[in-house]
Amino acid sequence: MDKKYLNIYNEILNKIENNYFKPNSKLPSENDLMREYNVSRATIRNALNLLEQNGYIQKIKGKGSFVLDIHKFNFPVSGLISFKELSKKIGLNANTILKELSVIKPDSYLMKQLQISGDEHVWKVIRVREIDNKKIILDKDYFNKKFVPLLTKDICEDSIYEYLESKLGLKISFAKKEITVQIATEDDKKYLDLEGYNMVVVVKSYIYLDDASLFQYSESRHRPDKFKFVDFARRNKEVMKG
Fold first, then answer.
1. Phi/psi class of residue 169: alpha, beta or left (left: φ > 0; alpha: ψ in -120 to 50)?
2. Are 204 and 134 within one domain?
């Protein structure tokens, strides 16, 4: 079996990891790589396909192969942390852009997510998170107005959680989260710098207060190449009796 492509894969990968091939740069063409390594087109394509499958390059039809940024931000799955807290923790050059702040009557979807009736009102907050001058997160947050009577532009562009906890005295306790990969919507394309990606990673969160009241539903939509979703788990083996 021809293993030459694995050697080529490892050589190109080493160049990517050592920044010889920089993020967003174009790799040499298939013809150039064939000449450089003195192998067939099929061998080069096998190496490039493996690089793409493992998230190191993106092949664009008619344009070539482009290096992805492999230095991803760690995004914690467990725990509750605000974007402001996360930015400080990992030293991000980050900015929040408020796109919409309004009070709405919930539709059937939001009624189900927030477990409320159509007579209640909801804060709708749409924010774009910009990191290193790239718009890579679209946050859609919905707060039950019964628990959050007031929000302002300044609060939303700073930290809503800091305001809720320090000013309103709310005790945010826990969240249930769901992570999926979805086709980019028109809003994703409108607000984010997708740079050719047609998929986004969506983290849906249901956030509760310490009395188990559900007060927030959110959809955090991430460009897929910029984040690693990390968690910590410990196995507790049950003691068998009898």
1. left
2. yes
Q: Which residue has the tokens 């991430």?
A: 222
pLDDT for the residue 241? 46
Q: Cα dist. 117→101, 122, 144, 158 in Å? A: 21, 11, 11, 30
**CATH at residue 109:** 3.40.1410.10
Same domain, 130 and 160: yes
8 and 53 together in one domain = yes
**Burial class of 96 by CB neighbour count within 10 A (0 to 12, 13 to 18, 19+):** middle
Tokens (6 digits) for 239: 């003691």
Residue 148 pLDDT > 90, yes or no? yes
Q: Which domain holds residue 116?
A: 73-230
- Under 8 Å between Cβ of 69 and 23: yes
Say whether both 218 and 196 belong to one domain.
yes
* Average pLDDT, integer, range 71-76: 62
Which residue, among 206, 167, 200, 172, has the nearest Cα to 186 in the 3D structure? Answer: 200
Runs of H (alpha helix) within 102-173: 108-114, 153-158, 160-166
If you average pLDDT over residues 214-223, what whole number do you get?
Answer: 94
Please indicate, yes or no, whether residues 135 and 188 belong to a single structural domain of this protein.
yes
